[in-house]
Amino acid sequence: MKLLNQLERRLYKFRIQPFFSYIVFAMAGIYLIDLFFPQFFLISRMALITSEVYAGQIWRLVSFLIIPPGGSILQTALTLYFYYFVGTALENRWGPRRFLLYYVIGVIAAIISALLTGIGTNLYLNLSLFFAFAILFPDFQLLLFFVIPLKVKWLAVLNAVYYLYGFVYGDWAIRIAILFSLANLLLFFGGDLYNKARMGISQWKRRQAFKNRSR
Hints:
It is a single chain. By secondary structure, this protein is mostly helical. The protein has one domain (about 1-215): Rhomboid-like (Rhomboid-like fold), CATH 1.20.1540. It is built from 11 helices and 2 strands; from the N terminus they run ααααααααββααα. It has helices at about 1-10, 20-35, 40-45, 50-55, 60-65, 75-95, 95-115, 125-135, 150-170, 170-180, 185-215, and strands at about 140-145, 150. It has a two-stranded antiparallel sheet with strand order 1-2. Strand 1 (about 140-145) and strand 2 form a beta hairpin. The N and C termini lie far apart (about 45 Å). The relative contact order is 0.10.
């Protein structure tokens, strides 16, 4: 954490503005262009395919970040709104510099995983933002299917199940992408999560000891 604080302080010499909303808007624009002009094969030209990067298409190291999620127009719109909500909430909580650190670490991890497997994705990078949001705002309520109120911490559990399913049943490219997508989460929250887990285990042991003495 000291290293992260030092890196954040160094960023204060630069004027950094909130940026994640522009990434989401760019995703929306790419989705619409690909929807109305599929003959351009825009998304395939932006995907992080390392063989194409080695061939000179360096832009893929950045362009994959604004590839939109797949699905229908409604599904994509809801997903992009969710990305926007979570990302801007983190920017407001941390400030643009600390959020930039979190995001850039995730980007670097996604690129490294792509170099190892041959292809990269921004899916798990974006989902890692939700994990961070759930840790910072665990009791925040969202309306699931616009009807069912559900706390974010339980949605994070579902997100973790999705990760676990992908790791168990996915190929090695997915497994490596999942593992590397946790890098920023562990760097920012690893100590806190470890302490909470240790406290939870200690409390459970005390309760069990109390029950045994009460018998």
